[in-house]
Amino acid sequence: MIFVVLHPRNRPKHVYSTNDTISSFSAGILFLLVGQITFLQWGAKLYDFLYTNFRVTDAFHDPNGTLGWWLCLLMSDILYYVMHRSSHYVSWLWTSHIVHHSSEEYNLSTALRQPANDFLTFTFLLSNASMAFFFPPELAILHGQLGLLYQFWIHTQLVPPLPTVELVFNTASLHRIHHARNLRALGKNYGSIFSLWDRLGGTLEPELSGDGEDLYYGT
């Protein structure tokens, strides 16, 4: 659509690669199909069990409560940071997460490149299990989906660096650095919605606009 609307001189230099896009869509479809196999979804069953039997408070039992909604968002996001950072350091987790980083392109289709073998790892224990002691499953699922939705749009090369926004939020620019295999980009920018955790964890690396640096993607 962008290439149809924009004048040729204003079109981005980056174009979609047909074979890479097909690979990304295929990985995404396989991820969804595996997700429909009930007995493989042990994480959801474990969450329900923990919340039903071991929750420490009923203060956030109402999924429509304002305080619980925002606290769950923050907890979900910081736990994602912990899980995501661990996925780049723990070999067992990397065997799954590498699927998402396998593309040498960087565009919206890359966001669909999700690992179908994630159920064989313990990412759920890092990213969701502890939330079951506080928040109902509906709220945890909601924020998990919101995080995925937010991360979809940041897989693009069309949005320039947004320094002011990046003081708080993750952006396409920050996530480009995360996907790049340039030396200075390795082990950086693990956040989902917020960039705060990267700042606190010492892993924030901004994109240097205007310096002519080319970013190389893939593993």
List the helices and strands and how they pair.
Layout: H1 2-5, H2 18-35, H3 42-54, H4 66-87, H5 91-101, H6 123-127, H7 137-153, H8 172-179, H9 196-201
Helix pairs in contact: 4-7
Question: What would the keywords be for this entry?
Answer:
single chain, mainly alpha, globular
Total of DSSP H or I helical runs spanning 4+ residues:
9
Mean pLDDT: 89
Radius of gyration: 18 Å
Helix content percent band:
40-55%
Sheet with most strands: none
Q: Kindly state the number of beta strands.
A: 0
The general outline is globular
**Uncertain spans, ≥5 residues at pLDDT below 50?**
none
> SS-based structural class?
mainly alpha
User: What fraction strand?
Assistant: under 5%
How far apart are the first and last residues' alpha carbons, in Å?
29 Å
Order of helices and strands: HHHHHHHHH
Structure description:
The chain has 219 residues and is mostly helical. 47% of the residues lie in helices and 0% in strands. The protein is built from nine helices and no strands. The longest helix has 22 residues. The protein is globular.
Summarize the model shown.
This protein has 9 helices and no strands. With 219 residues, it is an all-alpha fold.
